[in-house]
Amino acid sequence: MVRVTVKWNKQVFEDVELTLNGPVTAFKETLQGLTGVPMARQKLMCKGGWKGLLKDDADLSGSGITDGKEIKLMGTAEVIAAPTVAATFVEDLSAAEQAAAGQVLPAGFVNLGNTCYMNSTLQCLKAVPELRASLRAVDSGEGAGAGQSTTFAKALARTFETMDVATEAVPPTAFVSVLRAAEPQFAERNQRGYMQQDAQELFGAVYRHVTAASADVADQFGIEVEEEMKNTEDDAEAATTRSDKLNMLVCNIQGGTGNSIKIDHLHEGLKLGMEAEVEKFSEGLQRNAVYKKSLSLKKLPKYLCVQFMRFFWKATPNSRDHPNGVKCKIMRPVSFPEVLDVFPFCASDLQERMKVYRDVEDDGILDGGAAAAEEKKEGEAEAGGEEMEVVDDELKAAMAMSMPPVDAGPGLPDDFKGNYELFGVVTHKGREADAGHYIGWVRQEGDQWLVFDDDHVEEVNTEAILNLKGGGDWHMAYLAFYRARGALYYPP
To answer: Is 251 noted as a catalytic residue in this protein?
Structure first.
């Protein structure tokens, strides 16, 4: 028997008895009595004692653990149930109170004449709490002051606030008026009324105006990239680099008859979209030459928008009806993941930083995220207590010293590993780029999603979302919204 020191959260327990030739469960039972952490939730690490997390069937008799050895405990304690409060029945709440409490499905938007491109995109953006907070700040008088963009941001803030308490579909009349005044292309008409528009262009317009009114939004969605240009015909010419800012990544879709490049998955299209060949004048060769343009991610956002490049312009010089060309849609199926890993697309210094934590996780040292997910799956989400740090402060400090002096991006944790989880999708249905119908799909909790088809709202699961890859006449993903895993979020 030895007496060890157990560190749990900020508490330290000294002289805890550990019988090396006894069962591990006996030691865990002792810790449960000291900390209140159930045995099933206990994750134990000991540098030099065992590798990774301690298993219940481990044999510690030959571990060499001696008196005073420090053991780290991860896990959350059981909490005493809160005093019972008077019950409030749903039927006693007003319609607005029921909506605010989530007792009824959220309201949709009324289609005001081919505004499905806007309705679907706004439903996804409404699910971003930091954006909501920035809009409220502008509406309360903070931000860039008067101007068209401020008016735009205030109209959007008030539209979202109205949606929060609505029990019936909301006509976004005020915001549509502001949008069409600020961006005349969305006011284009034909003989049948207002024309269908592009959801990606709507997202771009919202981003421009809201970032002009509140700089915080650029940190939430902005992507800093490094562009390298290399002459493929002259090795003596040094490559040039420059920095740029984007508000989304593009999945370049190519395929069909006669095309040698087949894109079947999102990561393939992203790679293709970040590499291209361009022709420009070479000073060294004194003629035009082919350059390879490569993009890499330097700073990552908390929220990542990805566009599937399904629409393109096709020249039709022999067409009497469309001599200038037509806008076409690529129907090819392109699958996308529930969790997107952007590590392969990052710049080398950012990869070097993230690789430290990715390697540590692979070695079994960082297991907090998986443990937390496992606990939640086991129905233990009601357990309280202070959340356990995955690694202690000393280990984090030591790891930070070994990293390059870069950070992943604003709002991201120090141990961000490059993984984003899907929370919103805008789909397009139909074979014509300037027609068809847009729908928004927004994650609620776990496997539950809501489908916003203008004023009609219904529930679906994740399986339905991952089937939106295209390939036929069904809804297919056009914009995908991801959020960083491991970052802190708060309710809108």
So the answer is: no
